């Protein structure tokens, strides 16, 4: 494999695989620094009010305890630590700058000890007294004060939705809901903070090395040149590690105080609150269509929850803007405040939730019209971007419907609900459209030829398990025209050239293009006679859709078979078949694997995932992996994924659009539609658990 020439696009094994299986891949919590001590967070036990007093006398006297940090001894930070901007999210952190309690589970103290066990034990006996205030924990209550957020997705209209509605002959008007969810990568958030004089090094599990660096510097009021972030390996991110949360800065503050490196790893339960999650949504979806299936109007009103101290809007109107050729639309977003931690991006934010609503509504419309669900989508295929009229850089969605339908055996579907059976199992076939935007951001990379004849390419991007190490090396080897084994791609270090967040499915395109351009420039320089060692740094600055008047978005078609036990309501999904139009795959193996992983998430979203908020006290009741259900191997049947042959060179010269998130989209819709087809029961509230079917 290492001798492979022209590796781009091939199903190359992960270049970091050997390091992972031999334990040489270093994750953030594994750096064994000299004098390392351990920190454990103490969190609030009430959802609203203020801290009246903290008694840490006993905790401080415990064996091994070095330091207990509370609001009483935390240094005042610029702007009380609350205005720190973490592009793109602008997170508001909890840094013990005041006594306000905004949610149950909010950090309120930090215990540092010689060992983790000592810190955990002492954290358990920090006594916090509260003056409580009424909290808003019921969504029905919160909704009364819903508002349109200032930041985040803006309301969108095009055409004349009233006129469009008047032209309609068949209508759908339904409410679809999705629950609060929390991301749980295998590796929880973890930070080691290490000061050497004025210089801070953070080993942090993050999707955004540059973002952590800039946010921490700004929050502490120190020069960015004094902060360095390393994140060579990340055990999953999914959006929660796209922002810098409180624990990172708290670890840095504590380490400065104790003059030793401090390690802070979040416990599994601490993943449910202080580091975001997917907000609950309610989406009213209204469709109007002519008898021939042509959509004439679309209205979508989305309400999602946010916290009482920061707006995060789940952009569920985003897919609806682009998915069908509807001439008249009005799409609106509102948020309602709960006393919970601020939600955030979670795999395919907006698209995962939004496609559930629109794809179920389209299925309901298809049934009312007596038109096959695939046919209805073809009738309304968007040949250009519907809201702006821009042409697509490349779109092969029609091929996706055709290919996936053929592999799935869609033609065997008999339309009537409950008409397909296999013994005690009610069999259902459902489908949906998948979609996710294709974006690129500014990214820098440096390419070098070393004296030993090896090429080294560096970029401060992250590999969050997706395969960035591998595709970076593939792009470089391809461009340089050398075997893969002659290239080393290094990432996850803020000393390397700046890269954007590994989010929004834009890493392959952004980093790939920076690596490509740096390698091209290096090659050029070598051709003019430069000799090793030589290096070239390049910035790749892509222009956006509006500048180019070009719509860039990926699409796909997802088909699901479900089997529902006629007596017990048990739901099984023996197979999902999907085909995607995502541009060129840079690695056929990691690429298909990413898409399959996204579908597994979709399965969890459809049938299992739900964070249950105790409305009496504001805690998530099922805050562990025993009670918060995600699919295990036994829940996952065949996942058959292909991509159409495509090379989106109008988007970028690599032809690749990014694949991190599209896999989850459409899946919950396809499964909900299949459950309806099997049972005749339309479940519009995720997750579809058996109690809702009985
Ligand atoms: Mo993804 S939710 O943009 O990390």
Describe this structure in words.
This protein has 694 residues and is α+β, with helices and mostly antiparallel strands. The protein folds into 3 domains: 17-24 and 440-543, Aldehyde Oxidoreductase, domain 4, CATH 3.30.365; 31-133 and 190-236 and 241-267, Aldehyde Oxidoreductase, domain 3, CATH 3.90.1170.50; 156-181 and 277-438 and 548-692, Aldehyde oxidase/xanthine dehydrogenase, molybdopterin binding domain (Aldehyde Oxidoreductase, domain 4, 2-Layer Sandwich). The protein contains 16 helices and 24 strands. It has helices spanning 17-21, 57-60, 116-123, 139-143, 161-167, 209-220, 246-258, 351-369, 373-379, 397-408, 468-480, 507-527, 545-548, 588-607, 667-679, 690-693; strands at 37-43, 49-55, 65-69, 100-101, 107-113, 127-132, 156-158, 170-178, 190-196, 199-204, 227-230, 262-265, 281-289, 295-306, 329-337, 421-422, 425-437, 443-449, 455-458, 487-490, 534-540, 553-565, 571-581, 638-643. The strands form 5 sheets. Strands 3-5-1-12-9-10-11 form a 7-stranded mixed sheet, sandwiched between helices. A 5-stranded mixed sheet has the order 7-15-14-13-8, sandwiched between helices. A hairpin with a 5-residue loop joins β13 and β14 (295-306). It starts with 16 loop residues before the first helix and ends with a helix. The model has no long low-confidence stretch (mean pLDDT 96). Dioxothiomolybdenum(VI) ion (MOS) binds at residues 207, 237-239, 242, 345-347, 349, 503-504, 661.
């Amino acid at each position: 494999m290492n001798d492979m020439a022209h590796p781009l696009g091939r199903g190359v094994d992960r270049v970091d695989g050997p390091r992972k299986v031999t334990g040489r891949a270093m994750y953030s919590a594994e750096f064994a620094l000299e004098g390392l001590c351990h920190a454990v967070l103490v969190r609030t036990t009430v959802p609203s009010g203020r801290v009246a007093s903290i008694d840490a006398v006993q905790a401080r006297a415990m064996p091994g305890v070095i330091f207990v940090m509370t609001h009483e001894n935390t240094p005042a930070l610029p702007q009380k630590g609350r205005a720190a901007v973490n592009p793109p999210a602008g997170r508001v952190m909890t840094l013990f700058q005041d006594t306000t309690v905004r949610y149950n589970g909010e950090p309120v103290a930090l215990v540092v000890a010689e060992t983790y066990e000592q810190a955990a034990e002492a954290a358990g006996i920090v006594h916090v007294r509260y003056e409580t205030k009424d909290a808003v924990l019921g969504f029905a209550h919160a909704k009364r004060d819903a508002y349109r957020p200032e930041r985040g997705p803006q309301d969108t209209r095009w055409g004349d939705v009233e006129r469009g509605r008047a032209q309609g002959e068949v209508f759908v008007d339904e409410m679809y809901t999705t629950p609060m969810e929390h991301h749980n990568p295998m590796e929880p958030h973890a930070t080691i903070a290490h000061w050497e004089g004025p210089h801070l090094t953070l080993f942090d599990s993050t999707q955004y090395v540059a973002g952590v660096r800039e946010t921490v510097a700004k929050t502490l009021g120190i020069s960015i040149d004094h902060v360095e972030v390393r994140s060579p390996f990340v055990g999953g991110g999914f959006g929660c590690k796209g922002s810098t949360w409180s624990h990172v800065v708290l670890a840095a503050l504590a380490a400065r105080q104790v003059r030793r490196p401090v390690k802070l790893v979040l416990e599994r339960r601490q993943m449910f609150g202080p580091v975001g999650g997917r907000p609950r949504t309610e989406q009213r979806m209204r469709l109007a269509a002519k008898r021939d299936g042509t959509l004439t109007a679309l209205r979508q009103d989305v309400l999602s929850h946010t916290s009482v101290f920061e707006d995060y809007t789940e952009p569920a109107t985003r897919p609806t803007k682009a998915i069908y050729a509807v001439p008249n639309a009005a799409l609106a977003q509102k948020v309602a405040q709960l006393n919970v931690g601020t939600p955030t991006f979670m795999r395919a934010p907006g698209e995962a939730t939004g496609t559930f609503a629109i794809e179920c509504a389209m299925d309901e419309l298809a049934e009312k019209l007596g038109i096959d669900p695939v046919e209805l989508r073809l009738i309304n295929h968007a040949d250009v971007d519907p809201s702006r009229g821009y042409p697509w850089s490349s779109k092969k969605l029609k091929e996706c419907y055709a290919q996936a339908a053929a592999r799935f055996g869609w033609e065997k579907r008999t339309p009537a609900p409950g008409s397909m059976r296999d013994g005690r199992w009610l069999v259902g076939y459902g489908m949906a459209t998948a979609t996710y935007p294709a974006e690129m951001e500014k990214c820098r990379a440096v390419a070098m030829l070393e004296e030993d004849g090896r090429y080294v390419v560096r970029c401060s991007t992250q590999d969050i398990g997706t395969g960035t190490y591998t595709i970076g090396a593939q792009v470089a080897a391809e461009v340089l025209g050398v075997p893969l084994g002659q290239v080393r791609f290094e990432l996850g270090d803020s000393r390397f050239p700046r890269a954007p967040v590994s989010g929004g499915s834009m890493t392959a395109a952004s980093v790939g293009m920076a690596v490509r351009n740096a390698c091209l420039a290096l090659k050029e320089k070598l051709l003019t006679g430069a000799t090793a060692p030589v290096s070239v740094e390049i910035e790749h600055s892509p222009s956006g859709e509006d500048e180019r008047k070009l719509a860039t978005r990926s699409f796909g078609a997802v088909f699901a078979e479900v089997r529902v036990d006629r007596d017990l309501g048990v739901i099984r999904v023996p197979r999902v078949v999907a085909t995607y139009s995502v541009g060129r795959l840079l690695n056929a193996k990691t690429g298909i694997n990413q898409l399959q992983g996204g579908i597994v998430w979709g399965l969890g979203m459809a049938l299992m995932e739900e964070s249950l908020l105790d409305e009496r006290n504001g805690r998530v009741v099922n805050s562990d992996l025993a009670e918060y259900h995600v699919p295990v191997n036994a829940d996952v049947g065949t996942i058959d994924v292909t991509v159409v042959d495509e090379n989106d060179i109008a988007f970028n010269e690599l032809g690749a659009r990014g694949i991190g998130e599209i896999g989850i989209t459409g899946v919950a819709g396809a499964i909900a539609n299949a459950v309806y087809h099997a049972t005749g029961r339309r479940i519009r509230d995720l997750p579809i658990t058996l109690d809702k079917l009985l």
